[in-house]
């Protein structure tokens, strides 16, 4: 009896994750280097597109004044501090999007509306400091694991 054996070739996961869509390394030396050098301006455009926030709203969330944003567009690069704020937003966006099973409309709604677990503040209103950002990420972690207290 002869058995027919086919070679198994796994199909690669072709759908890029959110970090890949944004063009940002998820972690590690490449991320650190990009933050130190300053993100390319194109990341702002990608964040706006992926998050479904208009550029004015995203600039406000990331504390970028209109004049500063115009200068960065011309220069093509953000400062280290501005890049860190963009990364903070991206981190919360990715975590919230995972919480809502990649439903970006639900993610946007959650980010823009008051959340009881955050003292009735919208997550997007709490990205000014790393402590507030951590509070958002902690809440997302608790929600993912069913811990509501």
UniProtKB/TrEMBL annotation:
<dbReference type="InterPro" id="IPR011979">
    <property type="entry name" value="Antitox_Xre"/>
</dbReference>
<feature type="domain" description="Antitoxin Xre/MbcA/ParS-like toxin-binding">
    <location>
        <begin position="95"/>
        <end position="146"/>
    </location>
</feature>
<dbReference type="Pfam" id="PF09722">
    <property type="entry name" value="Xre_MbcA_ParS_C"/>
</dbReference>
<dbReference type="Pfam" id="PF20432">
    <property type="entry name" value="Xre-like-HTH"/>
</dbReference>
<protein>
    <submittedName>
        <fullName>DUF2384 domain-containing protein</fullName>
    </submittedName>
</protein>
<dbReference type="InterPro" id="IPR046847">
    <property type="entry name" value="Xre-like_HTH"/>
</dbReference>
<dbReference type="InterPro" id="IPR024467">
    <property type="entry name" value="Xre/MbcA/ParS-like_toxin-bd"/>
</dbReference>
<feature type="domain" description="Antitoxin Xre-like helix-turn-helix">
    <location>
        <begin position="32"/>
        <end position="90"/>
    </location>
</feature>
């Amino acid at each position: 009896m002869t058995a027919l054996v086919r070679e198994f070739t796994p199909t690669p996961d072709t759908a890029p994750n959110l970090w890949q869509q944004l063009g940002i390394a998820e972690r590690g030396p490449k991320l650190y280097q990009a933050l130190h050098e300053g993100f390319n301006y194109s990341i702002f455009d990608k964040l706006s597109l992926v998050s479904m926030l208009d550029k004015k709203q995203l600039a406000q969330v990331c504390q970028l004044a209109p004049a500063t944003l115009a200068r960065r567009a011309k220069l093509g690069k953000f400062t280290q501090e501005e890049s860190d704020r963009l990364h903070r937003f991206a981190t919360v966006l990715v975590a919230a999007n995972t919480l809502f099973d990649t439903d970006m409309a639900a993610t946007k709604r959650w980010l823009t509306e008051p959340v009881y677990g955050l003292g009735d503040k919208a997550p997007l209103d709490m990205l000014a400091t790393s402590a507030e950002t951590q509070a958002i990420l902690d809440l997302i972690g608790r929600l993912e694991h069913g811990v509501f207290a």
